[in-house]
Amino acid sequence: MSQHNQPQGPVPATQLRAIDALRTEVNKVLVGQERLLDRMLIALISGGHILLEGVPGLAKTTAVKTLARALGIENHRVSFTPDLLPADVIGTMIYNPREGTFSPKRGPVFTNLLLADEINRAPAKVQSALLEAMQERQVTIGDTSYPLPDPFLVMATQNPIEQEGTYPLPEAQVDRFMLKCRVSHPSKDDERRIMNRFSRRAEIEVARVMDAGGIAAMREALDQVYCDEKVGDYILDIVFATRDPKQYGLDIAHQIEYGASPRATLYLNIAARANALLHGRAYATPQDVKDIAYDVLRHRIIVTYEAEAEEVTSENIIARILDTIPVP
Q1: Which of 181, 316, 177 is nearest to 256 (CA)?
Q2: How far apart (Å, rounded) are the C-alpha atoms in residues 116 and 158?
Q3: Most exposed among 21, 67, 69, 89, judged by the fewest C-beta atoms under 10 Å?
Q4: Cα distance between residue 197 and residue 200, in whole Å
Q5: Helices and strands: H and E segment counts in the chain
């Protein structure tokens, strides 16, 4: 993703109208989850995958389904269960006895938006089958690789690891998700609005306000969002502080097993620029980086057993780093 040397003009009004229209439609169903909606839109604009974590009943699945309806793009939902097989997700070869040939039967992964529901309830084999799709935007069935449609986006939900019947996602797979967003309980006022809005059976109509062409236009607009070199240096300092905290005057090396990968640097840059675009700006600021840092980094910093024993989380470490590194 290129760093632009010159600031560009303002964000095109058509993009801002499209973002507002999407927000309006999704908020017909989603109540009080502005942060969650922002993160979903950042993933959409950036072409990155997103992992939503929270206890059951927080409208994670509803949020993704509503966004898919407003986008009007093809979407499939796969409920991940312990007995799921890789073929159930990517597809398989079907034998035709009359002709004596095999032909591919494509699985639900062949779609624009894949809702992977409760992804951590499926065993490792199924999770790794998704890896190729998420990284390479293609899947291999038999001996042949098939490209996935464009755009292709995985929005996955997972329950907290402590819940029964969950398999922790391997680090390599978690790293494929651009963002990991924690979904929390609504406030009392929001919950009252949810109760009043949904205690009747009436269906809420969500209009289709964008298509694949609109998503492509948003991504082109993102390429024009400027990231100053000082903001780029700030991103690098944050990521490098997760790997070599002592260099930045932080006494937290004993709490970090692995720091963030280079993918974190790339995603922080892209997500900060997407955040700026969402707020109608054609340039990213250090505040954009701070706003998005937790969602990009929380699943990329692996804490030590010692840190776990002290109940120190990756989020505590991110907070220390953001408090320490000077803002340009």
Answers
A1: 316
A2: 9
A3: 21
A4: 7
A5: 13, 11
Given the DSSP bridges, would you call strands 91-96 and 101-106 parallel, antiparallel or unpaired?
Answer: antiparallel
SS3 29: coil
* φ/ψ bin of 205: left (φ > 0), alpha (ψ from -120 to 50), beta (otherwise): beta
pTM of the predicted model, to two decimals?
Answer: 0.87
For residue 119, what are its two tokens?
A: 């992804």
Q: Find tokens 């973002």 and name the residue.
A: 19
- Cα distances (Å, whole numbers) of residue 121 to 158, 160, 303: 8, 11, 23
State the Cα–Cα distance between residues 315 and 321, nearest whole angstrom.
Answer: 10
CB crowding 101-119: b at 16 or more within 10 Å, else e:
eeebeebbbbbbbbbbbbb
Task: Answer whether 305's CB lies under 8 Å from 237's CB.
Answer: no
pLDDT, one tens digit per residue, over 212-240 is 888 888 999 999 999 999 999 999 999 99
Would you give the end-to-end CA distance of the chain in angstroms?
22
Provide the token pair at 232.
């780029």
C-alpha closest to that of 49 among 121, 143, 136, 125: 136
The SS3 assignment for 157 reads strand
3-state SS assignment for residue 84:
coil
Beta bridge partners, 283, equal 226
Length of the chain in terms of residues written = 328
Give the separation between CA 65 and CA 49, rounded to whole angstroms.
15
User: What pLDDT digit, counting tens, does each position of 120-138 carry?
Assistant: 888 888 887 887 888 889 9
Residue type, 31: V
Question: Amino acid letter at 272?
Answer: A
Phi and psi at 92, nearest 5°, equal -155, 175
